[in-house]
Amino acid sequence: MNLDDAVIPSLDELLASARVVALPLATRFRGIDVREALLLEGPEGWTEFSPFAEYDDAEASTWLAAALDFGWRPQPEALRTAIAVNATVPAVAAASVAAVLARFDGCRTAKVKVAEPGQTLADDIARVRAVRAAMGPEGRVRIDANGGWNVDEAEHAVHAMADCDLEYLEQPCTTIDELAELRRRVKYLGIPIAADESVRKASDPLAVARAGAADLLVIKAQPLGGVRRALAIVAEAGLPAVVSSALDTSIGLAMGATLAAALPHLDYDCGLGTASLFTSDVVVPPLAAHDGMLAVGRVTPDAARLDELAVSAERHAWWIDRLTRCHALLTH
């Protein structure tokens, strides 16, 4: 990524404020029960570095660039003071849907995880129908497969859930070619295709737009290198965008809200309400939805919560080592 205008403080400056925390989840999500994150305090305020554990240093360094941009540089002008957000429903049993949705105050849209390893299409259908029933006819329901289907499986699943009036399909397949083929097959249904991993995990985040493989982009501030870089990608792609979280703490969600607030057009509810998936957060109260809206602005962690949620010495050392390696990649 282009770091010509980046602010890269010294490693010693980063280590001086680094705090590593582990936030417990109310429901298992993305294969984890606890979300770890490294928090830093820069001259502009607190920021977050939290690439998932399985990401290599090259990919994780882009997340660090985002953290440094947010903590050490003023951010683009906000065009709105609050962001409409969706509820997020993990791959739970249909009977648990109501309890999950109850954690999200006033959200008019729900994103439902599907194609979970070890589950069946019948599980997905039951979950999505339970969400549709709970949201009512005026609610919006979108599904996210995280690339878990091939084209035939995705086409079959879309037809099986067509009666649920889906708002869009997020990353139903893995590759851009698969997305383009599925988009061609289901276009007559009028259900848009959204690209997530094909943007944030791609060496060329614009390839999916050039290929005509998606109708909208799901963008995340940390994986794309920060608010400015994400805004530039959306502008060049020329497609509508939904801002989503990477299961961030409230610090990272504030970065996402800053991105959403700066977009010239914001036609979809954003996936920034995920603080409601945690049982505890570093900010009191957490940056969660109220009447379906998330406030825009920086937040500050609570000192007591930083202590309560601190990771073990072993995990702290693991994150500091990772920070050190990623910092070296950005500076050499």
Q: Can you walk through the features of this model?
A:
The protein has helices spanning 11-17, 57-72, 97-101, 121-135, 151-160, 176-186, 197-200, 207-210, 227-237, 250-262, 303-308, 313-331; strands spanning 19-29, 32-42, 45-49, 82-84, 87-89, 109-113, 140-144, 166-170, 193-195, 216-219, 241-243, 293-295. By secondary structure, it is of the alpha/beta class. It folds into two domains: 11-75 and 304-331, Enolase-like, N-terminal domain (Enolase-like, domain 1, 2-Layer Sandwich); 82-302, Enolase-like C-terminal domain (TIM Barrel), CATH 3.20.20.120. The strands form three sheets. A seven-stranded parallel sheet has the order 5-6-7-8-9-10-11. Helix 5 (151-160) runs parallel beside helix 6. The longest helix has 19 residues, at 313-331. The radius of gyration is 19 Å and the shape is globular.
Gist of the model:
36% of the residues lie in helices and 18% in strands.
Task: Please give the structural blueprint.
Elements: H1 11-17, E1 19-29, E2 32-42, E3 45-49, H2 57-72, E4 82-84, E5 87-89, H3 97-101, E6 109-113, H4 121-135, E7 140-144, H5 151-160, E8 166-170, H6 176-186, E9 193-195, H7 197-200, H8 207-210, E10 216-219, H9 227-237, E11 241-243, H10 250-262, E12 293-295, H11 303-308, H12 313-331
Parallel strand pairs: 5-6, 6-7, 7-8, 8-9, 9-10, 10-11
Antiparallel strand pairs: 1-2, 2-3, 4-12
Helix pairs in contact: 2-12, 5-6, 9-10
